[in-house]
Specification:
- This protein is α/β, with parallel strands linked by helices.
- The chain has a single domain, classed as Alpha-Beta Barrel (TIM Barrel).
- Helix content is 34%, strand content 11%.
- It is built from 13 helices and 12 strands.
- The radius of gyration is 20 Å and the shape is globular.
- The two termini are 27 Å apart.
- The mean pLDDT is 96.
């Protein structure tokens, strides 16, 4: 692939590239479907647009929301998504991904409650409705960095993720995993007290629950068989269900494809290729639905640390993947669609809609309008241009001068452990 910046000045140019590559990217210029309500269990999202969990690395030392956290979420509230998927909130201090990752505790639950009240009040005042708000409860596992220094807690040695094998002491024991499961009970109880509508038992991007899904080579109760590899996630659900009241729903943002070859990846064929195989992801989602009544599933792919082009297709940067970026978008959209077709009665929230820039609304409308997903999720676009929802509704288009340019600057700030936001559109606050 040529080393260049990919973007499309006209929708026709984008359509021609889609046709040339033969990728699955349905576009629809009639956007009204995005502004219809979506039932999520007993609740209703006012529209089909969700803001995905984007960590700001700006919590206080004790895990409470900081001033920049509040600024970000009130901007999101003004923007008017039907659902805000709150960023990763650690279940224990040692599993925080940074010294400033949010961590919900008995001492700071009131700070979270106040922020949620402000979010709802701000959206009601500006938009006439309050968003649903889901808390992403997380164990960072391999990417734990609670004091700013890596302190990995891994499920198994993964050659695809380790240039040099980590010390065996980093591998969690079965007893340690059981302790981490139990932590979800208290986190869920506090989520309920804070006023979240739902709890995401985070299972994506190779954090701990996600990594265990591919623990084919691990010995013991949490590795090898499908039943063992899914044990941790299901037990975390059980713990969360016992902690939260019946009015709070459970869900997951889930990797259905890791993008690493077997035995290092989930959702991939076992023939050594990188071909998608959704057999186990479909089985797992079906079981979560049956066991825990999940009213929604958030589908994603890849690993932002090792193959970021899988869930954040390449535009420009310090490495050039072998695939055209629209192939990555197409893989994501196809995977989302296949999960939605497997569960026509389960709303699927799709990820990865930011890449087409000013044409992103057309892709969201094409996916939702075509029945390929129930809701469209935006992450980086929410950082760069949260008001895009109003422009889609009122103008029927996005402002090309304000969209996310997929530069990866926000991710660089996150990796550095500093407050993260858009270094292009919000540069008075965020700089590399």
């Amino acid at each position: 692939m040529r080393h260049e910046t990919f973007h499309y000045p006209t929708v026709q140019a984008l359509k021609e590239e889609i046709d040339t590559l033969g990728v699955f990217m349905p576009l629809k210029e009639e956007l009204s479907v995005l502004f219809t309500p979506q039932q999520v269990g007993s609740r209703t999202a006012a529209n089909r647009i969700a803001f995905e969990p984007m960590e700001g690395t700006d919590g206080t030392a004790d895990g409470a929301p900081g001033e920049l956290t509040r600024r970000r979420y009130l901007r999101f509230a003004e923007a008017g998504p039907g659902l805000i998927w709150f960023e990763a909130v650690a279940t224990l201090p040692e599993v925080r991904a940074s010294a400033h990752q949010l961590w919900l505790t008995r001492d700071n639950v009131d700070a979270f409650r106040r922020l949620l009240d402000e979010i709802r009040e701000t959206s009601l005042r500006r938009n006439g409705y309050a968003p649903l708000i889901v808390c992403q409860a997380t164990n960072s596992g391999r990417y734990a960095k609670p004091t700013g220094v890596p302190a990995p807690r891994i499920a198994y040695h993964c050659p695809s993720l380790e240039d040099q094998p980590l010390p065996d002491s980093c591998i969690l024991t079965d007893d340690e995993l059981r302790g981490y499961e139990e932590a979800y009970q208290e986190t869920a109880r506090l989520c309920d007290e804070a006023g979240f509508d739902g709890i995401d038992v985070k299972c994506c991007h190779r954090y701990l629950a996600s990594e265990l899904l591919s623990a084919y080579t691990r010995k013991g109760a949490y590795g090898g068989s499908y039943e063992n590899r899914t044990r941790f996630l299901k037990n975390c659900y059980r713990a969360a269900r016992s902690g939260a009241g019946a009015g709070v729903f459970l869900t997951s943002r889930m990797n259905v494809y890791d993008g690493f070859p077997y035995p290092d990846g989930f959702g991939v064929r076992n023939d050594g290729s990188l071909e998608v195989d959704l057999t186990e992801p479909v089985r797992l989602i079906g079981e979560l639905r049956q066991l825990f009544g999940i009213p929604l599933i958030n589908v994603t792919m890849g690993n932002p640390y090792r193959n970021p082009h899988v869930n954040r297709p390449y535009d420009h940067g310090n490495y050039v993947p072998d695939e055209h970026p629209l192939e990555g978008v197409g893989r994501m959209m196809d995977g989302i669609s296949r999960i939605q077709r497997a569960f026509p009665g389960l709303p699927v929230l799709g990820s990865g809609f930011t890449y087409p820039r000013q044409w992103a609304g057309l892709l969201a409308a094409g996916m939702v309008g075509g029945g390929h997903c129930a809701m469209a999720g935006f992450g980086r676009m929410a950082f760069a241009y949260p008001e895009f929802i109003h422009d889609l509704r009122e103008r029927g288009a996005l402002d090309a001068s304000r969209v996310c340019v997929t530069c990866g600057g926000c991710a660089k700030l996150l990796r550095a452990g500093t407050p993260a936001g858009c270094v292009v559109r919000d540069r008075e606050v965020y700089r590399l």
